[in-house]
Design a protein that fits this description.
The structure is a single chain. Strands 3-9-8-7-4-5-6-10 form an eight-stranded mixed beta sheet, with helices on both faces. By secondary structure, the chain is α+β, with helices and mostly antiparallel strands. Helix 1 crosses helix 2 (34-46) and helix 5 (145-160) packs parallel to helix 6 (177-188). The protein is 54% helix and 16% strand. Strand 8 (210-218) and strand 9 form a beta hairpin. It has three domains: 3-63, Arc Repressor Mutant, subunit A; 99-256, Endonuclease Chain A (Endonuclease, Chain A), CATH 3.30.870.10; 262-321, Orthogonal Bundle (Arc Repressor Mutant, subunit A), CATH 1.10.10. It contains twelve helices and ten strands.
Length: 326
């Protein structure tokens, strides 16, 4: 068992012995420093082992691991429910907008295309017109290896003329070898890749001029809407930016590892990670290492990306679990 997990269990047991006191003063006699106690205390809060309790002397009380697991599961279910509701609302709004614009636009600003060859031709034309960015949302099953290679060719052309490529895929995509290979190749040529558990729709945006929205297949095969209406594209752009913000970044190093485990930071980054795990602030780390706070913030952001961690706490917890820090 990694040292950090052992310390966390010891701290939990100490709090259990002194049920009347659930603050960071507990653990001093066990040899934990002030910084360690603060980190362990926050870790128990994050794991729902230490919860708010108005009746408790210090405002928090300890709960059993089983109760904590139920709380964590409930929190995750609430997040999934909320995101699902947002997706359904976005789909309803999009349906109204598409129907309205198709009615009043006379079909000129929204064109329906069916069949793989016509859709690929539309994608080719859209990406060829992009001068600033191509943005994509790819839910569900990943494209076949053949389609992925064709898409990669288009992405390489976009990046070659100085435009950006951002793509959000379903998290489960990483578990499929050919899809993982595609994500790695896209990242290697300069594309930005993120993943999310739930995605609302399949979408490709080329700047602010063209959007390709994939709809459920009809009798005539795969179907997509080619949208050139400015206000509707703006709505789809806002939706993409929301999805991008809540999705998880994928580091190139994690994509290159077959088992998905993060690579261990080295040199100064490893020292920064060690100090992060102790709960030190950016200013304190900067003073200890002898660099600017701005440099620490930049390197901390890069460390979180490398580890695939969403917060400093998660980075410290992961480092302890992997045995990188004591």
């Amino acid at each position: 068992m990694p040292e950090f997990i052992r310390d966390l269990r010891t701290y939990y047991d100490l709090l259990a012995e002194d049920a009347e006191r659930a603050d960071t003063s507990v653990g001093h006699d066990a040899g934990f420093s002030t910084e360690q106690r603060a980190l362990l205390h926050e870790s128990l809060v994050q794991l729902c082992l230490l919860v708010e309790s108005p009746s408790a002397t210090d405002g928090r009380s300890l709960v059993s691991p089983a109760a904590a697991a139920r709380r964590l599961l409930q929190h995750q279910n609430e997040k999934v429910h909320t995101l699902g509701a947002e997706i359904r609302e976005a789909q309803r709004a999009l349906s109204v907008l598409v129907d309205g614009f198709m009615t009043f636009g006379g079909g000129k600003e929204i064109e329906e295309v069916a069949g793989f060859p016509r859709i690929m031709a539309a994608l080719d034309a859209a990406t060829a017109s992009a001068r600033r960015e191509v943005a994509m949302v790819q839910p569900g099953m990943p494209p076949s290896p053949e389609i992925a290679q064709a898409a990669l060719f288009l992405h390489r052309e976009v990046l070659g003329r100085g435009a950006a490529v951002r793509a959000v895929y379903q998290t489960a995509t990483r578990n499929l070898p050919h899809a993982r290979s595609h994500l790695r190749q896209l990242a290697d040529i300069g594309g930005q890749v993120r993943t999310a558990q739930l995605l609302p729709l399949r979408l490709v945006l080329a700047d602010e001029t063209v959007a390709i929205l994939f709809v459920p297949p009809q009798d005539k095969g795969p179907t997509a809407l080619i949208i050139r209406n400015g206000p509707l594209i703006a709505v789809l752009r806002d939706m993409f930016e929301h999805v991008w913000t809540v999705s998880d970044p994928l580091s190139t190093s994690s994509l290159h590892k077959v088992d998905g485990a993060p690579s261990k930071p080295v040199g100064q980054r490893m020292e920064i990670l060690r100090l992060l795990a102790l709960g030190m602030s950016d200013d304190a780390i900067a003073r200890k290492i002898g660099v600017s706070t701005r440099t620490i913030r930049r390197q901390t952001a890069e460390i979180l990306l490398q580890l695939g961690a969403g917060s400093r706490f998660r980075a410290g917890l992961l480092a302890g679990r992997l045995g990188w820090v004591d």
